[in-house]
Design goal:
The protein has one domain: Rossmann fold. The radius of gyration is 19 Å and the shape is globular. The strands form 2 sheets. Strands 3-2-1-8-9-10 form a 6-stranded parallel β-sheet, sandwiched between helices. It has a 4-stranded antiparallel β-sheet with strand order 5-4-7-6, with no helix packed on it. The protein is built from 10 helices and 10 strands. The chain starts with a helix and ends in a 15-residue tail after the last helix. The protein is α/β, with parallel strands linked by helices. One of its GO terms (biological process) is negative regulation of transcription by RNA polymerase II.
Length: about 350
């Protein structure tokens, strides 16, 4: 679970701003705001959701910077103890609501900073999902790029070898790839996966509505992606109990538990929240190309398919100068620094955690 995940990361001094106070809208105010959000979703042609650790706290998986988050407790000199494991955690109401919204066409693309695997285990199609910081249940062939989704956590982190090998057959079935499988989980200074980040960037630019759920948006570049939607004329909605780095840029700011917000929202949209029937893997949404992110048709984006060896390189650890999480509070938003020049982005994406 997230405590073990956090403990498995390399030592790192700057974990962002932790333990900020929470704010709650009154029931009447919350109702009015969710009604506005529902209307915007009805009008939207391309909504993108950005999810953070706050959507999983109701499953028993703690967040990191909340009042009782893993890193908040560490700052207080306390040792966090929780009983939930990643394998035992069940998708929350929010996870299942997002799945239903994708099925009904309301949600076009989902961008997550979470590593708990709950989006994938809920059955959310992987061709409509970017997991920017990895997935505890996924390992990847460093040779051909094939990804494997496991029933249990992979067990290692930081793009390290798992001890298993790829079984993808080469052309004419002569022999299997046999490339080493590595963890998909990033450590502090690992670069974000180009494939997921590029698709997230493209979807964010295309979106006319960006909805952020349960993230403080402190971390670059993940936390700045919603601003791309606003920059291209779309609306930005932020749902989080604690202050976020981009509150002043939001068209609508909602202070409430994400499950409460999503529960009200689904009723207003006339949608049922499906029951979770156990871990489900969906690689392909079966949707039309017109709901893929811009440019997705140009590249191999279905994760189950093999990527040509000559064109694929798994991101290695790169030492970068860390961009302090407090910059957004002190100096304003500078999304341009990461997103200004297309084609150079893959060399400036350094990973840190929500």
């Amino acid at each position: 679970m997230s405590v073990n995940y956090a403990a498995g990361l390399s030592p790192y001094a700057d974990k962002g701003i932790c333990g900020l106070p929470e704010t709650f809208d009154s029931p009447e105010e919350l109702k009015t705001k969710v009604e506005t959000l529902a209307q915007w979703i009805r009008e939207s042609q391309y909504m993108v959701v950005h999810s953070g650790a706050g959507i999983s706290t109701s499953t028993g998986i703690p967040d990191f910077r909340g009042p009782n988050g893993v890193w908040t407790m560490e700052e207080r000199g306390e040792t966090p103890h929780f009983n939930t494991t990643f394998e035992d955690a069940r998708p929350s109401l929010t996870h299942m609501a997002l799945l239903q919204m994708q099925r009904t066409g309301h949600l076009k693309y989902l961008i997550s900073q979470n590593v708990d695997g709950l989006h994938v285990r809920s059955g959310f199609p992987r061709d409509r999902l970017s997991e920017l910081h990895g997935n505890m249940f996924v390992e990847e062939c460093e040779k051909c790029g094939k990804q494997y989704v496991r029933d249990t956590v992979v067990g290692v982190m930081g793009l390290k070898p798992t001890g298993r090998y790829c079984d993808v057959m080469r052309s004419r079935g002569l022999r299997s790839c046999r490339g080493k499988l590595i963890s998909s989980i990033l450590d502090w200074e690992d670069s974000l996966p180009d494939r997921d980040l590029n698709r997230a960037d493209e979807a964010s630019r295309r979106a006319d509505l960006a909805l952020t759920l349960g993230t403080s948006l402190q971390i670059k570049p993940s936390g700045d992606l919603p601003l791309l939607t606003k920059r291209t004329g779309g609306k930005l909605v932020i749902v989080n109990l604690q202050p976020t780095k981009h509150d002043k840029h939001a068209h609508l700011r909602i202070y409430g538990y994400v499950d409460d917000v999503m529960g009200q929202l689904m009723k207003l949209l006339g949608l049922d929240v499906p029951e979770w029937a156990g871990p489900t893997l969906c690689e392909d949404s079966g949707g039309d190309l017109d709901i893929l992110p811009y440019g997705a048709w140009k590249k191999e984006v279905k994760i189950e398919l093999k990527i040509e060896e000559s064109n694929h390189t798994v991101s290695k650890k790169r030492k970068r100068k860390e961009q302090h999480a407090e910059e957004g509070y002190k100096n304003g938003v500078k999304v341009e620094e990461e997103m200004k020049e297309e084609g150079k982005e893959s060399d400036s994406h350094v990973h840190t955690h929500t």
